[in-house]
């Protein structure tokens, strides 16, 4: 492999297909944009699997994987495109089970209620809560993380843990960037509160992904056999680096919407990724997931 700061621009994933047996692939921004699925990405996933590869989708979606599978089906993403899926919602639910019997306040939209369904917890208003689980902003089309300062300050003053079910700070919805739960977790920490996160880039979601791979393959894969694919520097790339996985960066995701193809930090290049993610094992950069 080239060094991280000189990793090649790929014309397609076929260039790397023979080097990896398994893909851990991000969903939002790589496979779809929240409105439509990307045909070249679906083709690449199908071709990799047809050649004997295994694909596990790894998402920071703050919902259980069965709910996300149903949503993917509505976008035309189905069983020909992936072998398994794990979400930040799955990992967060496991953490919340350790708080059984306590009172929990859900900070997030109603559409995320499956995250907390059937857990051994008592759901209350904020004033009675022992902890908070955050799946997002109540209205991510109009609000920002700073709009929650009064609520977050009250939570901090009461010493409440904030369980963040989606570490992403923004997500691409069509041609817009929408704030996510990770922005609230960051703001809570800035105010002195304690936030707990289990999705990318943190280890629990990768542990679960490798458990799924082991169940499919009948053995636990070597990390050198696994390629991580994603469009987020702070989530996908950092998570791959921390877990010791090679990675491919997809340019056309969330960072593709930065002004001037990179904003104030400059254009997205291998050197920039290497600078922002120490230890990254960058196998290549691609404009979009395609074969």
Which topology of the domain at 57-205 and 235-247 does CATH recognise?
A: Rossmann fold
Structural class of the helices, strands and pairings?
alpha/beta
Uncertain residue segments: 257-266
Mean pLDDT: 91
Give a short summary of the structure:
Helix content is 29%, strand content 20%. With 291 residues, it is α/β, with parallel strands linked by helices.
Q: What does this protein look like?
A:
The protein has 291 residues and is of the alpha/beta class. The chain has a domain at 57-205 and 235-247: HAD superfamily/HAD-like (Rossmann fold), CATH 3.40.50. It has eight helices and 13 strands. It has helices at residues 39-50, 65-74, 88-97, 149-157, 181-190, 203-217, 233-243, 270-276, and strands at residues 22-25, 54-59, 84-87, 103-107, 122-123, 131-134, 161-164, 170-173, 176-179, 194-197, 226-230, 246-250, 281-286. The strands form three sheets. The protein has a six-stranded parallel beta sheet with strand order 3-2-1-11-12-13, sandwiched between helices. A five-stranded parallel beta sheet has the order 5-4-6-7-10, sandwiched between helices. Strand 12, helix 8 (270-276) and strand 13 (281-286) form a beta-alpha-beta unit.
